[in-house]
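Q: Here's a chain of 272 amino acids. Please give me its 3D structure as tokens.
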Amino acid sequence: MKCLRKTIRTISEYIDIINIFRNQVDSTTKILFRGQANAKWKIESSLERIGLKNLTFNNYYTLVDSYKPEINAYGKKFSRKVTCNGYDFDFSDYSKISYDGFPEIEYLTYLRHHGFPSPLIDVTLSEYIALFFACEDAVGSANEIKSGKVFVLQSELWNHAVSGYTEIYEIGRYIETDLRHLTQQSEYLVACCYDLDKREWKFVPFDLEGCLKEASQESNSILEIQIPASVKGNLLKELDKMNINHYTLYRDEDSLMKKMKFDFLAENGRLI
């Protein structure tokens, strides 16, 4: 099991490398992409980033259920699931998650797209959108801009699931949720584990190296593409020509202002 690492400076180089990678895998294999603004960051959920690495499903779902009335005040219609007997789902049954899937995935994806700590790791079906996310910090950032990275992943990496061990679940795009889910061509990964002793599910860190060790393919199954900080601005200009920018991906007033800021900086030669 191998991880291939490359560095690019132009979109044409980027697409050429991805096409070579695609040609090495089975044509039926789904390819997923994740762009990150800092090449040193590993893939992790926003729950991991705040230090909550082994939170039980029951604790997380019960807590976020309490926030629904405030969210619904803005026109949403998320129904409460907590009753006097606790959260309305049996997290002690391994098969309920393993075969039936995660409850309230629409709600969890909404939380993820609006910055709330979530166990979901968002990926995209579009290599262009992933490249945007790896470069978006170049728009007038007050901090030093870092080199970015795009992860290119085969979905077969996590096609193994056994209770008592870390399992990676892939959640597809057919979800009725926030508009950003559609504009970003989103799918999601969730790392979790069923505790056989306590008979409960918990969210755990996403272990990419562990996936590599357990996968059986001999070809490259992960491609990491590094984007130097010095070329991020030019790449964003090229992506904008494809109508990939802050506003088209986020679709709100704040993102419109970021798009206008991008135009302003570009016109005045202030976009690196």
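Q: Can you summarize the key feature?
A: The mean pLDDT is 90.
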